[in-house]
């Protein structure tokens, strides 16, 4: 039986102080600082391009082999950094990520518009400090949260019957990084032709804009850099929690095996998303797409797993707080880094791929397409069985969680941020990273458990 949360201000304050102390000890014990390394890559590339007549994809962080690996439009979108010094750019990135996180929580939350209050926000903050993918996103200065917010904004439009406005967010996200392009596939599977056309047009328009700004950079990226996975990182690196990462750690290099595995994942994704869309369950449809995108991408670093956040919202809505809490807790542990040096053997196969197994399990068994008739999304209609007026439609789809049963353990599952009933729990938690910024010139070295890397390849 789940213990009840304290109801007095004094009890709540003592709980918050205790949780803050535990979080502080945990984050001090599990090294996490990345020294904004990915942001330094972005900043250095833009600075070299704008102020020193350099080429975007030629820049390397001094003393390393790491440089810019995103599509050209990402560089165009980051041009405002040329007006800032590095310290100001770091502050701006932190504020943007905080704002994006707030948007993500709002879009995934229960449609109760009441604010969670100081106690709720304190619990949310403590939980956010534990989720490893989220923590890496902040400490690397990554862009994952911004892209997730753009994609979920489109999910909200579709869920609330405003599909004619949907697609632009997905298109922009796909132009910045390729992984969100699978959400265009979701729109096609759902037969939302207009939204798919908008997303495709925005992605192509943004890409064309980048080609106009710097034709040489676009040519190099689309003809050379895109196909060179070595620019991004080692496939067998433990932070790579994709299907390709699993195969690479097994020593399987045959691309045909990977292609077959990817087709199997996509087949499951199509079947499950069709069911979710047929039920008007857009939260589940977008959650399943995020899961599939992480699995089929050649490289999915730990910080990419912020795309799992919608899945936790679905679990909570489906009344599975214990399952959500258990999976969420595992994603806070940095457990995969125990096999940083050696992922061989059965224990290495199971343990080094822990996050990938969670992603695959959620793709297979996430509750989807099970909304009650009065809770279907995709139109502006409301349930006729409710006694009190209900908002036009939930932001994406309802996330039903009983606040009274949320303890610190189960609240850790609220990856989508849930503010419910009388109490205040939920939030897309943050994470403990697996290591400290290396003491040598490499951002991730074998002497310390460095975490995921989007921008640059870990040293071979």
Automatic annotation (TrEMBL):
Database matches in InterPro entries: GT87
Subcellular location as annotated: Cell membrane
Record's signal peptide: none
Topology of this chain in the membrane: Multi-pass membrane protein
Keyword annotations from UniProtKB, A to Z: Cell membrane, Membrane, Transferase, Transmembrane, Transmembrane helix
Biased composition (Polar residues): 432-454
Pfam families referenced in this protein's UniProt entry, alphabetically: GT87
Family assignment from sequence similarity: Belongs to the glycosyltransferase 87 family.
Descriptive protein name: Glycosyltransferase 87 family protein
């Amino acid at each position: 039986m789940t213990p009840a949360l304290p109801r007095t201000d004094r009890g709540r304050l003592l709980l918050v102080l205790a949780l803050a102390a535990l979080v502080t000890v945990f984050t001090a014990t599990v090294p996490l600082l990345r020294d904004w390394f990915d942001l330094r890559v972005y900043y250095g590339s833009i600075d070299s391009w704008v102020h020193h007549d350099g080429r975007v994809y030629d820049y390397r962080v001094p003393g390393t082999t790491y440089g810019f690996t995103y599509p050209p439009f990402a560089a165009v979108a980051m041009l405002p950094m040329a007006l800032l010094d590095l310290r100001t750019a770091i502050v701006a990135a932190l504020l943007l990520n905080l704002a994006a996180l707030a948007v993500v929580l709002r879009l995934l939350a229960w449609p109760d518009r009441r604010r969670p209050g100081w106690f709720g926000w304190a619990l949310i903050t403590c939980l956010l400090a534990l989720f490893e993918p989220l923590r890496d996103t902040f400490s690397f200065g990554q862009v994952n949260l911004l892209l997730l917010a753009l994609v979920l904004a489109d999910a909200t439009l579709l869920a609330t019957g405003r599909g004619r406005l949907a697609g632009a967010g997905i298109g922009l996200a796909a132009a910045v990084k390729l992984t969100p392009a699978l959400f265009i596939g979701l729109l096609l599977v759902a037969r939302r032709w207009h939204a798919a056309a908008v997303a495709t047009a925005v992605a192509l328009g943004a890409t064309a804009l980048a080609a106009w700004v710097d034709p040489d950079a676009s040519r190099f990226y689309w003809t050379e850099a895109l196909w060179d996975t070595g620019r991004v990182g080692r496939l067998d690196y433990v932070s790579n929690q994709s299907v390709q990462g699993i195969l690479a750690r097994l020593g399987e290099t045959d691309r045909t095996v990977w292609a077959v595995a990817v087709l199997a994942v996509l087949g499951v994704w199509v079947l499950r998303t069709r069911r979710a869309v047929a039920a008007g369950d857009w939260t589940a449809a977008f959650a399943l797409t995020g899961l599939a995108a992480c699995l089929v991408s050649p490289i999915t670093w730990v910080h990419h797993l912020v795309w799992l956040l919608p899945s936790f919202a679905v679990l909570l809505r489906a009344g599975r707080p214990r399952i959500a809490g258990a999976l969420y807790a595992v994603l806070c542990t940095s457990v995969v880094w125990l096999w940083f040096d050696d992922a061989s053997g059965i224990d290495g196969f199971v343990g080094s791929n822990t996050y990938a197994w969670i992603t695959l399990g959620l793709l297979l068994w996430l509750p989807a397409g099970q909304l009650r008739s009065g809770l279907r999304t995709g139109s502006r209609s409301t349930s006729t069985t409710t006694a009190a007026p209900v908002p036009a439609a939930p932001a994406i789809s309802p996330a039903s969680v009983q606040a009274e049963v949320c303890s610190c353990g189960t609240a850790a599952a609220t990856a989508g941020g849930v503010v419910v009933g009388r109490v205040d729990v939920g939030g897309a938690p943050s994470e403990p990273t697996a290591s400290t910024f290396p003491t040598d010139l490499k951002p991730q070295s074998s002497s310390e458990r460095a975490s995921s890397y989007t921008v640059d390849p870990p040293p071979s």
